Each structure stands twice: as C-alpha cells, then as structure tokens.
C-alpha cells in the first residue's frame, strides 16, 4: 500500500497530528520541529508522545518526517550562523529520540559566496559533530532547486557531503520532485533516466523519502515554487509515474503542496488510486 501523507501543523502536539493524518486518509505525515522561520521550540509532553505512539501503532502511521527550520544554514560563511544550525539540529535529534526510528529532513544550506566546496566541507563537518552512533533517527539531505547559492541542486553535491560523513549510515536523502524538476532533472519526460542517475551518483539505498510536489515553473527554472498535484508543469500523470515507479513505490511520500486539509485529502486519494493502477 502507498505510504503517503502531508505537512501538518505541530501546534497541538503529536496525537493531534496523528488523528488529523488519519482523518484525511494519510498514513504518515511531516511536521516542523519548531518555528520554521525561527528556532523556538515547544516543550515535548511525554504523555502526548505516548498517546501518539499508541495511536500510530493502531493506525499504521509511520514513518513520520520531521523538518528542520528553514532559517538554518550549515554552509554559511558566518561562524555564528553555522553554530546556530549545529546547535538547533543537535537539539532536534535529541527530541526525536522520543520517536525512535523516524526521519529528520533539512536543507543543506547556501554557500552565499565562499563557494560550493567550502559549503560542503562545513555541512559535512556539522554532521560529523552532531551525529551520534546510538541515535535512532536518520537525517535526510533534501534535494534542492539550485537557486542562488543553494547546495544540493545537483546529485553530485549531495554525494560529496555523504562521502565526508563518518557515521554515513545515519544519513540519507529526501528527493523533492519540484526541486529536482526546477533543478533541471526531467522527471516528467525521462523519469527512468533520472532514477538511474540518482542511483549512479548517490545510490538508491540512500533514498529514504520523497516530497511529492508539482512545480509552478518550467524545467530547469531554479526557482522552487510548489504547485498542487496536476496544476503545475510536472503534471499529474508524471507524478503518478513517480509513485508507481518500481524503484520508488515502496518509499514514503510527503505532500508539500499549497493546500488546506481538504485539498490534501483529495491529493492523497488521487495518488492512492494512481499507485494501485
């Protein structure tokens, strides 16, 4: 069965997210660990976590995907900003131990002028600093659109980061369909070729999750603007082929489309039907 969910607000806690996911036909979900435009985080209530774990087990809601705040930049030339990213993500990993066996996704960062190679060294250095041998969460590098000085717009850049990480079994990749499309990978016209390229450069064993989004932009625009499924330049049929692809169909999919809950429910139903064809 297709594992699919969407991004949910964490304001009311884990149990509320689990119940919301179930109410719209989802069996997984993504959430921000804290304010997506800041670093403030709410205290975790252990009773809420335990209630969620019971509910999730009864409703097969797994794996959940935590998302780091957007403002963190592990590739910054500013040492203070790099330290903020490391400290925040290290704290998030400690908090994720309340929900062992799940994923923590982050944007690799922007080098903002000092060059991609320097940024890659700093990103991998941060991972080597915060990853712990006994942690139960896999960190995911997200594929990016390549706008500005973003790192991660090419598969080779993610491979370079992975090659420098000492505890590499604790790191994987989340592929965002909008981002790779905007980055120039033609998943609509040449999906098999893109999957082959990912496997050649990174390895499909590293691919742990997919952000399923259409794009407001044409191929290679490098702009990163998500669209609802079927309303963008990638299109419904192409995204249906993504969820059905034999190398991808067993992965969890997370919608980040510009929707309210009823829109997510429609898209989840659409993609489940497409997966079963």
From TrEMBL:
Keywords: DNA damage, DNA repair, Endonuclease, Hydrolase, Metal-binding, Nuclease, Zinc
InterPro entries: AP_endonuc_2, AP_endonuc_F2_Zn_BS, Xyl_isomerase-like_sf, Xyl_isomerase-like_TIM-brl
Gene Ontology BP, a term: base-excision repair
Cofactor remark from the record: Binds 3 Zn(2+) ions.
EC number: 3.1.21.2
Keyword Signal among UniProt keywords: no
Residues the entry annotates as binding Zn(2+) 1: 67, 107, 142
Annotated Zn(2+) 3 binding sites: 179, 224, 226
Catalytic EC class: hydrolase
Domain Xylose isomerase-like TIM barrel: 20-273
One protein family per Pfam: AP_endonuc_2
Cofactor: Zn(2+)
Annotated residues for binding of Zn(2+) 2: 142, 176, 211, 256
GO MF annotation terms: deoxyribonuclease IV (phage-T4-induced) activity; DNA binding; DNA-(apurinic or apyrimidinic site) endonuclease activity; phosphoric diester hydrolase activity; zinc ion binding
SUPFAM superfamilies associated with the record: Xylose isomerase-like
SMART domains per the UniProt record, alphabetical: AP2Ec
Catalysed reactions, as listed in the record: Endonucleolytic cleavage to 5'-phosphooligonucleotide end-products
Family: Belongs to the AP endonuclease 2 family.
Function recorded in the entry: Endonuclease IV plays a role in DNA repair. It cleaves phosphodiester bonds at apurinic or apyrimidinic (AP) sites, generating a 3'-hydroxyl group and a 5'-terminal sugar phosphate.
Entry protein name: Probable endonuclease 4
Organism the protein comes from: Candidatus Caccovicinus merdipullorum
Encoding gene (name): nfo
